[in-house]
Amino acid sequence: METVIAAATEMQNNFGRYLNFVIEGNQVILTKNGKEVARLIPREKAVSSITDSLTGILKHNTDAEDEREKDLLRKYAAVR
Hints:
CATH architecture of the domain at 1-41: 3-Layer(aba) Sandwich
Strand content: 15-25%
CATH topology of the domain at 1-41: YefM-like fold
Strand order of the largest sheet: 1-2-3
Helix content: 55-70%
Low-confidence stretches: none
Distance between the termini: 49 Å
CATH class of the domain at 1-41: Alpha Beta
Largest sheet: 3 strands, mixed
Structural class: alpha+beta
Order of helices and strands: EHHEEHH
Radius of gyration: 20 Å
Number of strands: 3
Mean pLDDT: 81
């Protein structure tokens, strides 16, 4: 995936060009006054990124309530 950085004015003036870039599977980082304010990425990459980040959390146990209870027990056991 290729990345391009574009200022807000540049993006506004050439939106179609940047949209096509994203459609092709790349990402655009949008800046305003030199600060990153947004990223445009293909939808498939966004879904993949979210599921990839959850994989580490849910790898061994998909029972979120059980994991929450274990975390609370560890937290309060350290306080006692």
